[in-house]
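Appendix C: a fully annotated inverse folding record. The material below is reproduced so that readers can follow the format used throughout the book. The structure is listed first as C-alpha coordinates, followed by the designed sequence.
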Protein backbone atom coordinates (compact mmCIF):
# COMPACT_ATOMS: atom_id res chain seq x y z
CA UNK A 1 0.00 0.00 0.00
CA UNK A 2 2.76 2.43 0.93
CA UNK A 3 4.67 1.68 -2.26
CA UNK A 4 1.52 2.19 -4.39
CA UNK A 5 0.82 5.53 -2.70
CA UNK A 6 4.35 6.70 -3.36
CA UNK A 7 4.15 5.72 -7.04
CA UNK A 8 0.91 7.68 -7.32
CA UNK A 9 2.48 10.72 -5.69
CA UNK A 10 5.49 10.59 -8.00
CA UNK A 11 3.22 11.32 -10.98
CA UNK A 12 2.40 14.64 -9.33
CA UNK A 13 6.06 15.71 -9.28
CA UNK A 14 7.74 17.17 -12.31
CA UNK A 15 11.03 17.66 -10.49
CA UNK A 16 13.46 14.91 -11.63
CA UNK A 17 15.36 14.97 -8.32
CA UNK A 18 12.20 14.26 -6.33
CA UNK A 19 11.22 11.51 -8.74
CA UNK A 20 14.58 9.76 -8.35
CA UNK A 21 14.48 10.03 -4.56
CA UNK A 22 11.06 8.46 -4.49
CA UNK A 23 12.14 5.58 -6.70
CA UNK A 24 15.11 4.93 -4.41
CA UNK A 25 12.69 4.86 -1.46
CA UNK A 26 10.46 2.39 -3.34
CA UNK A 27 13.43 0.11 -3.89
CA UNK A 28 14.32 0.19 -0.19
CA UNK A 29 10.73 -0.72 0.76
CA UNK A 30 10.61 -3.56 -1.75
CA UNK A 31 13.99 -4.86 -0.64
CA UNK A 32 12.72 -5.04 2.93
CA UNK A 33 9.64 -6.93 1.76
CA UNK A 34 11.64 -9.22 -0.55
CA UNK A 35 9.89 -7.92 -3.69
CA UNK A 36 12.58 -5.86 -5.38
CA UNK A 37 11.64 -4.55 -8.81
CA UNK A 38 13.94 -5.56 -11.64
CA UNK A 39 17.16 -3.56 -11.53
CA UNK A 40 19.36 -2.37 -14.30
CA UNK A 41 22.84 -3.88 -14.13
CA UNK A 42 25.59 -1.83 -12.53
CA UNK A 43 27.97 -0.07 -14.89
CA UNK A 44 30.81 -2.56 -14.45
CA UNK A 45 33.26 -3.80 -17.05
CA UNK A 46 32.37 -7.43 -16.46
CA UNK A 47 35.13 -8.77 -18.68
CA UNK A 48 37.82 -7.04 -16.62
CA UNK A 49 36.89 -7.91 -13.03
CA UNK A 50 39.08 -10.43 -11.24
CA UNK A 51 38.51 -12.94 -8.49
CA UNK A 52 38.53 -10.42 -5.65
CA UNK A 53 36.15 -8.64 -3.28
CA UNK A 54 33.93 -5.85 -4.56
CA UNK A 55 31.40 -4.47 -2.05
CA UNK A 56 27.75 -4.61 -3.08
CA UNK A 57 24.68 -2.80 -1.77
CA UNK A 58 23.14 -5.27 0.68
CA UNK A 59 24.15 -8.13 2.96
CA UNK A 60 22.13 -10.39 5.26
CA UNK A 61 22.63 -10.48 9.03
CA UNK A 62 21.06 -12.61 11.77
CA UNK A 63 22.13 -12.77 15.42
CA UNK A 64 21.90 -15.65 17.90
CA UNK A 65 21.31 -14.70 21.53
CA UNK A 66 19.59 -16.31 24.53
CA UNK A 67 19.29 -19.60 22.69
CA UNK A 68 17.55 -18.37 19.52
CA UNK A 69 18.21 -16.75 16.15
CA UNK A 70 16.48 -13.43 15.48
CA UNK A 71 14.45 -12.84 12.32
CA UNK A 72 17.43 -11.54 10.35
CA UNK A 73 17.49 -8.63 7.93
CA UNK A 74 19.20 -7.07 4.96
CA UNK A 75 21.55 -4.20 5.77
CA UNK A 76 23.70 -1.77 3.83
CA UNK A 77 26.40 -1.76 6.52
CA UNK A 78 29.39 -3.85 5.42
CA UNK A 79 31.26 -3.38 8.70
CA UNK A 80 31.20 -5.55 11.81
CA UNK A 81 31.86 -4.14 15.28
CA UNK A 82 32.98 -6.64 17.92
CA UNK A 83 34.62 -6.57 21.33
CA UNK A 84 38.36 -7.26 21.38
CA UNK A 85 37.68 -10.45 23.37
CA UNK A 86 35.13 -11.87 20.91
CA UNK A 87 35.38 -15.64 20.66
CA UNK A 88 36.13 -15.53 16.94
CA UNK A 89 39.33 -13.57 17.65
CA UNK A 90 40.46 -15.67 20.59
CA UNK A 91 39.58 -19.24 19.59
CA UNK A 92 38.74 -19.08 15.86
CA UNK A 93 35.17 -20.25 16.28
CA UNK A 94 34.08 -19.49 12.74
CA UNK A 95 32.96 -21.26 9.59
CA UNK A 96 31.89 -20.33 6.08
CA UNK A 97 30.44 -21.53 2.80
CA UNK A 98 30.86 -20.55 -0.83
CA UNK A 99 28.48 -20.75 -3.78
CA UNK A 100 27.59 -18.74 -6.87
CA UNK A 101 24.66 -17.09 -8.64
CA UNK A 102 24.48 -17.02 -12.42
CA UNK A 103 22.50 -15.34 -15.17
CA UNK A 104 21.15 -18.02 -17.48
CA UNK A 105 20.69 -17.73 -21.21
CA UNK A 106 17.00 -16.86 -20.79
CA UNK A 107 17.84 -14.04 -18.36
CA UNK A 108 16.98 -15.72 -15.07
CA UNK A 109 19.18 -15.38 -12.00
CA UNK A 110 19.78 -18.75 -10.36
CA UNK A 111 22.13 -20.38 -7.87
CA UNK A 112 23.46 -23.91 -7.73
CA UNK A 113 22.41 -26.41 -5.06
CA UNK A 114 22.26 -24.01 -2.06
CA UNK A 115 20.52 -26.68 0.00
CA UNK A 116 23.79 -28.66 0.06
CA UNK A 117 25.69 -25.62 1.32
CA UNK A 118 23.07 -25.22 4.04
CA UNK A 119 23.46 -28.85 5.04
CA UNK A 120 27.25 -28.68 5.05
CA UNK A 121 27.27 -25.54 7.19
CA UNK A 122 24.92 -27.29 9.63
CA UNK A 123 27.39 -30.19 9.89
CA UNK A 124 30.25 -27.75 10.41
CA UNK A 125 28.37 -25.82 13.10
CA UNK A 126 27.66 -29.01 15.05
CA UNK A 127 31.33 -30.01 14.99
CA UNK A 128 32.41 -26.54 16.20
CA UNK A 129 29.73 -26.40 18.95
CA UNK A 130 27.95 -23.56 17.17
CA UNK A 131 24.16 -23.24 16.86
CA UNK A 132 22.87 -24.49 13.52
CA UNK A 133 21.38 -21.79 11.33
CA UNK A 134 18.18 -23.47 10.05
CA UNK A 135 18.73 -24.89 6.57
CA UNK A 136 15.52 -23.49 5.10
CA UNK A 137 16.40 -20.05 6.44
CA UNK A 138 19.90 -20.39 4.99
CA UNK A 139 18.46 -20.91 1.50
CA UNK A 140 15.97 -18.07 1.99
CA UNK A 141 18.75 -15.74 3.15
CA UNK A 142 20.75 -16.59 0.02
CA UNK A 143 17.72 -15.77 -2.13
CA UNK A 144 17.11 -12.48 -0.30
CA UNK A 145 20.73 -11.36 -0.57
CA UNK A 146 21.13 -12.22 -4.25
CA UNK A 147 17.78 -10.66 -5.15
CA UNK A 148 18.66 -7.44 -3.30
CA UNK A 149 21.95 -7.29 -5.23
CA UNK A 150 20.55 -8.39 -8.59
CA UNK A 151 22.21 -5.43 -10.29
CA UNK A 152 25.59 -6.99 -9.48
CA UNK A 153 24.87 -10.39 -11.01
CA UNK A 154 27.00 -10.43 -14.19
CA UNK A 155 25.11 -10.83 -17.46
CA UNK A 156 24.99 -14.09 -19.37
CA UNK A 157 28.00 -14.66 -21.60
CA UNK A 158 30.35 -12.42 -19.61
CA UNK A 159 32.13 -15.36 -17.97
CA UNK A 160 31.64 -13.65 -14.60
CA UNK A 161 29.40 -14.73 -11.73
CA UNK A 162 28.17 -13.51 -8.35
CA UNK A 163 30.09 -15.21 -5.55
CA UNK A 164 28.03 -15.80 -2.39
CA UNK A 165 29.79 -16.05 0.97
CA UNK A 166 27.69 -17.17 3.99
CA UNK A 167 29.65 -17.23 7.27
CA UNK A 168 29.12 -17.51 11.01
CA UNK A 169 31.23 -16.65 14.04
CA UNK A 170 31.21 -16.48 17.81
CA UNK A 171 30.53 -12.84 18.62
CA UNK A 172 30.47 -12.38 22.41
CA UNK A 173 33.46 -11.99 24.71
CA UNK A 174 35.09 -15.28 25.77
CA UNK A 175 38.35 -15.50 27.70
CA UNK A 176 38.14 -19.09 28.97
CA UNK A 177 38.44 -21.84 26.37
CA UNK A 178 34.80 -22.62 25.63
CA UNK A 179 32.19 -22.03 22.90
CA UNK A 180 30.65 -18.60 22.58
CA UNK A 181 27.11 -17.87 23.82
CA UNK A 182 26.26 -15.46 21.01
CA UNK A 183 26.80 -15.76 17.25
CA UNK A 184 26.30 -13.85 14.06
CA UNK A 185 25.36 -15.35 10.69
CA UNK A 186 25.99 -13.19 7.64
CA UNK A 187 25.94 -13.39 3.86
CA UNK A 188 27.70 -11.03 1.50
CA UNK A 189 27.99 -11.28 -2.26
CA UNK A 190 30.57 -9.98 -4.71
CA UNK A 191 30.85 -10.19 -8.49
CA UNK A 192 33.89 -12.13 -9.64
CA UNK A 193 35.45 -12.70 -13.03
CA UNK A 194 36.21 -16.09 -14.56
CA UNK A 195 38.76 -17.99 -12.51
CA UNK A 196 40.78 -18.71 -15.65
CA UNK A 197 41.13 -15.81 -18.07
CA UNK A 198 42.24 -16.96 -21.49
CA UNK A 199 41.45 -20.61 -20.78
CA UNK A 200 42.34 -23.13 -18.13
CA UNK A 201 45.98 -24.15 -18.37
CA UNK A 202 47.06 -27.26 -16.45
CA UNK A 203 48.92 -26.52 -13.24
CA UNK A 204 51.83 -28.18 -11.45
CA UNK A 205 51.42 -29.24 -7.84
CA UNK A 206 53.67 -30.86 -5.28
CA UNK A 207 53.24 -33.55 -2.67
CA UNK A 208 53.38 -31.55 0.55
CA UNK A 209 55.38 -32.39 3.67
CA UNK A 210 52.74 -30.53 5.70
CA UNK A 211 49.50 -32.09 6.92
CA UNK A 212 46.26 -30.31 6.15
CA UNK A 213 44.29 -31.95 8.97
CA UNK A 214 44.79 -34.22 11.95
CA UNK A 215 43.40 -37.77 12.09
CA UNK A 216 39.83 -37.52 13.45
CA UNK A 217 40.20 -33.73 13.30
CA UNK A 218 38.31 -31.05 11.38
CA UNK A 219 39.36 -31.77 7.79
CA UNK A 220 35.81 -32.80 6.85
CA UNK A 221 34.19 -29.47 7.80
CA UNK A 222 34.50 -25.97 6.36
CA UNK A 223 36.06 -24.31 9.38
CA UNK A 224 38.08 -21.14 9.03
CA UNK A 225 40.89 -22.64 11.11
CA UNK A 226 41.55 -25.28 8.40
CA UNK A 227 42.35 -22.57 5.89
CA UNK A 228 44.55 -20.66 8.30
CA UNK A 229 46.61 -23.81 8.79
CA UNK A 230 47.11 -24.18 5.03
CA UNK A 231 48.40 -20.64 4.41
CA UNK A 232 52.04 -21.30 5.23
CA UNK A 233 52.05 -24.41 3.06
CA UNK A 234 50.64 -22.63 0.00
CA UNK A 235 53.00 -19.67 0.37
CA UNK A 236 55.88 -22.12 0.62
CA UNK A 237 54.65 -24.02 -2.46
CA UNK A 238 54.43 -20.81 -4.48
CA UNK A 239 57.94 -19.83 -3.39
CA UNK A 240 59.20 -23.12 -4.82
CA UNK A 241 57.37 -22.63 -8.12
CA UNK A 242 54.33 -24.84 -7.56
CA UNK A 243 50.69 -23.85 -7.95
CA UNK A 244 49.25 -25.99 -5.16
CA UNK A 245 49.87 -28.69 -2.55
CA UNK A 246 48.74 -32.29 -2.63
CA UNK A 247 48.06 -33.31 0.96
CA UNK A 248 48.36 -36.95 2.00
CA UNK A 249 46.35 -38.65 4.70
CA UNK A 250 47.78 -37.54 8.08
CA UNK A 251 47.86 -41.04 9.57
CA UNK A 252 49.89 -43.03 7.02
CA UNK A 253 50.90 -40.40 4.44
CA UNK A 254 50.32 -42.93 1.65
CA UNK A 255 46.87 -41.86 0.41
CA UNK A 256 45.79 -38.83 -1.62
CA UNK A 257 43.42 -36.45 0.15
CA UNK A 258 42.93 -32.94 -1.28
CA UNK A 259 44.59 -29.56 -1.72
CA UNK A 260 44.13 -26.58 0.57
CA UNK A 261 40.83 -25.67 -1.04
CA UNK A 262 39.73 -28.28 -3.59
CA UNK A 263 39.00 -31.98 -4.03
CA UNK A 264 40.84 -34.18 -6.55
CA UNK A 265 39.32 -35.99 -9.50
CA UNK A 266 41.20 -38.53 -11.63
CA UNK A 267 40.37 -40.13 -14.97
CA UNK A 268 41.55 -43.61 -15.87
CA UNK A 269 43.88 -43.96 -18.85
CA UNK A 270 41.14 -45.56 -20.94
CA UNK A 271 38.90 -42.55 -20.26
CA UNK A 272 36.05 -44.68 -18.93
CA UNK A 273 36.24 -44.12 -15.17
CA UNK A 274 36.14 -41.13 -12.83
CA UNK A 275 37.96 -41.75 -9.54
CA UNK A 276 37.71 -39.48 -6.49
CA UNK A 277 39.58 -39.95 -3.19
CA UNK A 278 37.59 -40.97 -0.13
CA UNK A 279 38.66 -40.11 3.40
CA UNK A 280 37.21 -38.90 6.68
CA UNK A 281 39.56 -35.90 6.50
CA UNK A 282 38.39 -34.60 3.10
CA UNK A 283 35.89 -31.75 2.86
CA UNK A 284 32.80 -33.10 1.00
CA UNK A 285 32.89 -30.85 -2.06
CA UNK A 286 29.51 -30.03 -3.60
CA UNK A 287 31.20 -29.59 -6.97
CA UNK A 288 32.81 -33.02 -6.66
CA UNK A 289 29.50 -34.66 -5.77
CA UNK A 290 27.89 -32.96 -8.75
CA UNK A 291 30.67 -34.04 -11.11
CA UNK A 292 30.30 -37.64 -9.95
CA UNK A 293 26.61 -37.53 -10.85
CA UNK A 294 27.32 -35.85 -14.20
CA UNK A 295 29.98 -38.43 -15.00
CA UNK A 296 27.64 -41.35 -14.41
CA UNK A 297 24.28 -40.04 -15.58
CA UNK A 298 25.23 -37.62 -18.37
CA UNK A 299 28.50 -39.04 -19.75
CA UNK A 300 28.04 -42.73 -18.99
CA UNK A 301 31.31 -43.08 -17.08
CA UNK A 302 32.05 -45.50 -14.30
CA UNK A 303 32.46 -43.69 -10.97
CA UNK A 304 34.66 -44.82 -8.09
CA UNK A 305 34.73 -42.97 -4.78
CA UNK A 306 37.46 -44.78 -2.84
CA UNK A 307 40.85 -44.51 -1.20
CA UNK A 308 43.50 -43.48 -3.74
CA UNK A 309 47.11 -44.43 -3.05
CA UNK A 310 49.90 -42.03 -3.95
CA UNK A 311 51.59 -44.80 -5.91
CA UNK A 312 48.50 -45.06 -8.16
CA UNK A 313 48.87 -41.58 -9.64
CA UNK A 314 51.17 -42.75 -12.44
CA UNK A 315 48.35 -45.00 -13.70
CA UNK A 316 45.81 -42.22 -14.31
CA UNK A 317 45.28 -40.40 -17.61
CA UNK A 318 43.92 -37.07 -16.34
CA UNK A 319 43.82 -35.13 -13.08
CA UNK A 320 41.89 -32.10 -11.90
CA UNK A 321 41.00 -30.07 -8.81
CA UNK A 322 37.32 -29.29 -8.33
CA UNK A 323 35.61 -26.58 -6.33
CA UNK A 324 33.20 -23.65 -6.49
CA UNK A 325 35.69 -21.05 -7.71
CA UNK A 326 37.02 -22.72 -10.85
CA UNK A 327 34.69 -25.76 -11.15
CA UNK A 328 37.68 -27.77 -12.45
CA UNK A 329 41.36 -26.79 -12.50
CA UNK A 330 43.30 -29.23 -14.72
CA UNK A 331 46.53 -30.66 -13.29
CA UNK A 332 49.29 -31.53 -15.72
CA UNK A 333 52.02 -32.62 -13.36
CA UNK A 334 52.51 -33.69 -9.74
CA UNK A 335 56.01 -33.58 -8.23
CA UNK A 336 56.77 -35.98 -5.39
CA UNK A 337 60.06 -34.82 -3.86
CA UNK A 338 61.79 -34.49 -7.21
CA UNK A 339 59.98 -37.36 -8.91
CA UNK A 340 57.66 -36.06 -11.65
CA UNK A 341 54.32 -37.69 -12.35
CA UNK A 342 53.17 -36.37 -15.73
CA UNK A 343 49.63 -37.07 -16.87
CA UNK A 344 49.13 -38.05 -20.53
CA UNK A 345 46.65 -35.18 -20.96
CA UNK A 346 49.68 -32.84 -20.88
CA UNK A 347 50.41 -29.27 -19.84
CA UNK A 348 48.62 -27.40 -22.64
CA UNK A 349 44.89 -27.91 -22.04
CA UNK A 350 42.28 -29.86 -20.11
CA UNK A 351 42.16 -33.54 -20.81
CA UNK A 352 39.25 -34.61 -23.07
CA UNK A 353 37.17 -36.27 -20.35
CA UNK A 354 37.83 -33.51 -17.82
CA UNK A 355 36.75 -30.98 -20.44
CA UNK A 356 33.46 -32.85 -21.05
CA UNK A 357 32.81 -32.89 -17.31
CA UNK A 358 33.53 -29.16 -17.06
CA UNK A 359 31.38 -28.24 -20.05
CA UNK A 360 28.48 -30.39 -18.89
CA UNK A 361 28.40 -29.08 -15.34
CA UNK A 362 28.78 -25.43 -16.37
CA UNK A 363 26.13 -26.01 -19.04
CA UNK A 364 23.76 -27.17 -16.31
CA UNK A 365 24.61 -24.16 -14.16
CA UNK A 366 24.08 -21.71 -17.03
CA UNK A 367 20.87 -23.30 -18.30
CA UNK A 368 22.20 -24.80 -21.55
CA UNK A 369 21.64 -28.33 -20.31
CA UNK A 370 18.64 -29.60 -18.38
CA UNK A 371 19.49 -29.93 -14.69
CA UNK A 372 18.62 -32.79 -12.38
CA UNK A 373 15.63 -32.00 -10.19
CA UNK A 374 16.46 -29.66 -7.32
CA UNK A 375 19.90 -28.60 -8.55
CA UNK A 376 18.95 -25.10 -9.70
CA UNK A 377 17.36 -22.57 -7.35
CA UNK A 378 15.69 -19.73 -9.25
CA UNK A 379 16.17 -16.37 -7.59
CA UNK A 380 14.37 -14.00 -9.94
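Designed amino acids, in order:
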Amino acid sequence: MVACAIIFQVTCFENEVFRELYFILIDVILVKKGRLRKMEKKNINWSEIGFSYMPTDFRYVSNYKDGAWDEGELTEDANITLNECACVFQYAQTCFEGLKAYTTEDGKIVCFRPDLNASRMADTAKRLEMPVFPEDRFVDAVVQTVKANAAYVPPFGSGATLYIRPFMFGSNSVIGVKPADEYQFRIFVTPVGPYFKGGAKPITIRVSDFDRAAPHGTGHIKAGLNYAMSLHAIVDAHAEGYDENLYLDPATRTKVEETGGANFIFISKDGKTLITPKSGSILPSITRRSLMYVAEHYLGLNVEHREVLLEELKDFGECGLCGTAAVISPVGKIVDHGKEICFPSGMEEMGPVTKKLYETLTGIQMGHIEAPEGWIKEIC
